[in-house]
Amino acid sequence: MIQRSGKQLFLATVCLQTGNIVYFSNKAMQPKGDYEVIQIQNLKELQLAMLASADQPVLMKPIEVRANTPVPRQYVDGGVREYAPIRVAIHAGAEEIYAIMLSAEHSSEKKIRYDGVPEIMGRTIELLCEDVAANDVAIPELYSAGLRHLKGIRERLIKEGLTEAQADEIVYANENPFSNKHEISIYKFRPRQPLECDPLVFSREEMAQMVAQGYETAAAVSDQLPLRA
Question: Whole-prediction pTM value?
Fold first, then answer.
């Protein structure tokens, strides 16, 4: 069904042996950054890649998607290095991105004592994900803001009497850090407050509450999206 949809799927993982971000995709793609893309060959690989993308390191056993590789390749959750994989979507040509994140924009103080290794590890991973998520979103937004600023300068120069070629020469110099970048719009769906739950305990009641909160957040963000013709 995924192959017939015509859509491209990316499952983010991190390889423990290389330390690289590795995306498992239903389509071949040449990487445009410091990551790898592995094309999924069959249903079994798709299932294993999904498990790897949700694999919590230390607390869960790493996943080998292809056990017959010449050297070991074990994969864990991509959030170790990239929590919101916006970059690969941009490289695949996306111009509008709807980012769904489970972490709130701002962390809250935890008024508890951490004594056990699993609890300390869980909190450490939570803080790591928050920091990685902030960078994943901030960098593409910074590039888009820069591109909009350069576009405004170019339009002003042309308005002042310069030709388009002259304006391009001034704005888009050879060492322009925004070359090969395109403007994007990122719409973020994330909880207003941190989700208060134990990541090691799967409670149906708590999950139902979080799903309901997700619907409320989605409705609030959707009201702010630009109208489509």
Answer: 0.74
